[in-house]
Amino acid sequence: MSNITVCVRFRPLTSKEKPHGDDSVCIRCIDSETFIFKDEKDEESMFSFDRVFYEKSEQADVYQFLALPIVRDAANAINGTIITYGQTGAGKTYSMEGPGILECDEQKKGLLPRVVKELFDSINLSEEEMTYSIKLSMVEIYMEKVRDLFDLSKDNLQINESKSRGIFLPGVTEITVRDPAEAFQSLYSGIANRAVGQTQSVNRTRSGKLILVDLAGSEKVEKTGAEGRVLEEAKAINKSLSALGNVVNSLTCSMQGKAGHIPYRDSKLTRILQDALGGNARTALLCCCSPSAFNASESLSTFRFGARQVIHESMAKHIKASPHVCYCEDKSDTVSIKASAHVS
Ligand code: ADP
Ligand code: MG
């Protein structure tokens, strides 16, 4: 099985997009892997991905195809990263969290609550005799600074690396959680502090790290008409996103023997993801899009970000790394990483 899975998800039209009716939809379903896209000049092109989730898709479908295999691998000490990408309003946070982190409607729950539940379930089902603890931390990357969402006084955490721990954040607050309810409560308080993420890492004799990343909106700076500090924020976000694209491309190129250097250090985001993206780690990228013609050009750039990774998929699957569990979240104006846990 490939190490990189790239999917596209189209959310339903919003009430603002709806008045234009079907004419305003710029995509046409071919099958569960392929769709036709009509650009602003009415020219059509076909795109294929590992899976395309259309507007009627359920949260459970996305979880099962994209996340479940990675969560199961994380329990077996294979690192993984699940990333949502796309313009603001495209459905990244909805896919990652659902309508809210404490959402009660099972159907609407997003990837994060489902991943947390599966992690606890897999620990409980484990036949191995062990005591375990899951420690949760949440951080946000904002303007290239890593902030502790559980302790806002720690607003510039450093990123270190060691043989035993891999990439870690010295001094980051870690909250021990014993069941999914405690985990959600902690996540909820961290999210209220609006920043990035939590990381959950699981250590037995083996350890695996799983990182969930809800990226900042990918829309172009010029389109947002940003100035001053907002412009600086947009630049920082672009830096993170292009660094992420470059790292994935470099990983695939190095497998072809073309380049040795993987530019993880070009952004805080890629540095934190370093040991969950390279090596034997598994990556799932969910490209979230509006189906509306109004957003056609942003959707096209989102498909291209994903398609670039697909082109190199056959190479990427040979990349070597080792496993863990984390969650990164990002509001439209910041890039955040959420959740890491250690089970020991
Ligand atoms: P983003 O995080 O990409 O900026 P959101 O996830 O906040 O976007 O989604 C924008 C709006 O669209 C929200 O009101 C959200 O509830 C809604 N939405 C997104 N995806 C879906 C979906 N698949 N089904 C129903 N509503 C959705
Ligand atoms: Mg969001």
The amount of beta strand, in percent, is 15-25%
The pLDDT mean sits at 77
N-to-C series of helices and strands: EEEEEHEHHEEEEEHEEHHHEHHE
Write down the oligomeric state.
Answer: single chain
**Major sheet:** 10 strands, mixed
Distance between the termini: 29 Å
Question: Which secondary-structure class do the elements indicate?
Answer: alpha/beta
Q: Please give the share of residues in helix.
A: 25-40%
Count of distinct strands: 15
Uncertain stretches of 5 or more adjacent residues: 194-202, 310-344
Which small-molecule species are bound to the chains here? Answer: adenosine-5'-diphosphate, magnesium ion
Radius of gyration: 19 Å
Categorize the overall geometry: globular
How many alpha or pi helices?
A: 9
Commentary on this structure:
The chain is α/β, with parallel strands linked by helices. It is 33% helix and 22% strand. Strands 1, 5, 6, 7, 8, 11, 12, 13, 14 and 15 form a ten-stranded mixed sheet that branches. The chain has a three-stranded antiparallel sheet with strand order 2-3-4, with helices on one face. A two-stranded antiparallel sheet has the order 9-10. Helix 1 crosses helix 3 (111-125) and helix 6 runs parallel beside helix 7 (268-277). Magnesium ion binds next to helix 2. Residues 92-93, 214, 331-332 line the site of magnesium ion. This is Kinesin-like protein. ATP binds at residues 86-93. Belongs to the TRAFAC class myosin-kinesin ATPase superfamily. Kinesin family.
